[in-house]
Amino acid sequence: MLVMQSLTQRLANPSNFMALSARLLPWCWVVAAGLIGSGLYLAFFGSPPDYQQGQTVKIMYIHVPAAWLSMLIYTLIALSSFGLLVFRHPLADVSAKAAAPLGATFTFLALATGSLWGKPMWGTFWVWDPRLTSVLILLFLYLGLIALRSSIEDEALAAKLTAVLSLVGIAILPVIKFSVEWNSLHQPASVMRLGAPTIHASLLWPLFVMALGMTVLFTALQLKAMRNEILRRRVKALRRIAATSAADLSQQPAE
Amino acid sequence: MRALWELVRRDIVIAWKEGGTLGVALGFYLVVVVLLPLALGPDLNLIARIAPAVLWVAFLLSALLSLGRLFEADFEDGSLDVLATGSLPLEAVVAGKAVAHWLTTALPLIALAPVLGLLLNLRPDAYGVLVATMLAGTPAVSFLGAIGAALTVRTRRGGLLIGLLLLPLFVPTLIFGIEAIGAALSDADSFAASFLLLLAVSLAAMVLAPPAAAGALRFQLQ
Amino acid sequence: MELGPHAVYIWSAYGVVVVTLAALIGWLVADGRRQQRLIEEIEARGLGGTRSRR
């Protein structure tokens, strides 16, 4: 905990963050590529087809990591929002703003791969399976964050309001997931559940490697997106300075 | 406490005199409910089966229309600034406005629901449950709606944005409400559980929404 | 690589992921370069320019 605190303190300075992330980023790309590469190899050449689902279980290796990331990223946004509102951490909003479109992308991937997995299994692309349904609602939460932020011009105000929204979202997310499960439990028609309830060991290893690889990939994407956002804010600041100094210049009498 | 009651009374009087928003909400409720059977055709059994769901969903959409205005008038004419610095904490102001909204908009909609149920061929034994679930669940709509209203108070055309923000928040209330009605109609055991969950969400919203909405408003009033 | 009768779904799923992630990475890299270029432009033009006009 203390290590985390001092780390976030040292990174509070954007220049420190830029320097550190510049060093970290290449490693992240390499590690991610390595992990995902070996994960794919294990998935396609090292694991057998599932007893019930045949080869389509291989979609699990990208669906489950995407779904897991969609939850993790929202949690990251909520933590960043907490950091903004409670600790006023300078990079908290940069982190939250960068992560939102990334989270929406992984959520979209979870939905796309989930429905492509569902079609051969159940014959239709969407069955309101509780897990997929709560991922769909999670997508709306992400879109809400992005839409709210873009509706407010004042950057500082947008930061605070989206922070409030993301904290409300993380508080209600367990309730939403529970209610969706509740819904499927009590429906008269039986809803099949996506996902392998008993995962054989040979399926677990590729899954674990892919999940880890995708998480490292997200870390790389997040660092890159945060760097871009810091640069974007620098551009804005420079433009403001250039504009005010040009205004000063125009006040001077003609020589 | 006196001040809070004064605030609620004031909002009720304003809503009563102005009347426009309520009229729009009621009209919208009617229109949406009428559209469904038109689209579905004359299969009365089908319409009857989905009637509770239609009545609940249309209620949520109608409530959305009115929620956007919750803080708008007071924000624009500066009354919200006065209220924020007054003797009543802003959280209480938010709670008061949500209560007023429930009394002036939700209750009339709930009163209209059984009438619309007639249009949808609602089962006779469903009317009581329908109203009961709406009474238990709609406080969540007003209070969670206050959060959405607080976040979008500045947006001129915040109408659609508030919908995107609030509909995920309404999902638990919707699901527990529909489950409760379904359980009551099919004599299943789960009615009590669903109803209590519905009530729990409303109570939790009444406690947790005011601080969130007040926080959002404070950021915009500085 | 025998992928069974539903191979098209497997390929589509992996395809969506690859295309989406590639687009995401591409956008991030391009955006970063653009911001960097803008910074260099402003620094070369704006602040240095006012001084040289004297």
Give the key terms.
heterotrimer, B: 222 residues, C: 54 residues, mainly alpha, 1 helix, 85% helix, rod-shaped, disordered C terminus
Taken in chain order, the helices and strands of chain A follow as HHHHHHH
Terminal Cα separation of chain A, in Å?
62 Å
DSSP E strands of chain A, number: 0
Oligomer: heterotrimer
Whole-angstrom Rg of chain A: 22 Å
Structural class of chain C: mainly alpha
Q: Please, could you describe this protein's structure?
A:
The complex is a heterotrimer of chains A (255), B (222) and C (54). Chain A has 255 residues and is an all-alpha fold. Chain A has helices spanning 2-10, 14-45, 60-87, 92-122, 130-150, 155-186, 201-251. The longest helix of chain A has 51 residues, at 201-251. Chain A is globular and about 85 Å long. Chain B has helices at residues 2-18, 20-40, 44-67, 72-76, 79-84, 90-119, 126-151, 159-185, 191-221. Chain B has 222 residues and is mainly alpha-helical. Chain B is globular and about 55 Å long. The longest helix of chain B has 31 residues, at 191-221. Chain C is built from one helix and no strands. The longest helix of chain C is centred in the middle third of the chain and has 46 residues, at 7-52. The chains are: A mainly alpha (255), B mainly alpha (222), C mainly alpha (54). Chains in contact: A-B, A-C. The A-C interface holds A 44, 49, 54-56, 58-59, 62-63, 66, 102, 105, 108-109, 112-113, 116-117, 119-120, 217, 221, 224-225, 227-228, 231-232, 234-235, 238-239, 241-242, 245-246, 249 and C 1-7, 9-10, 12-14, 16-17, 20-21, 24-25, 28-29, 31-32, 35-36, 38-39, 42-43, 45-47, 50, 53.
Chain-wise SSE layout:
The complex is a heterotrimer of chains A (255), B (222) and C (54).
Chain A: H1 2-10, H2 14-45, H3 60-87, H4 92-122, H5 130-150, H6 155-186, H7 201-251
Chain B: H1 2-18, H2 20-40, H3 44-67, H4 72-76, H5 79-84, H6 90-119, H7 126-151, H8 159-185, H9 191-221
Chain C: H1 7-52
What is this structure, in a nutshell?
The complex is a heterotrimer of chains A (255), B (222) and C (54). Chain A has 255 residues and is mainly α.
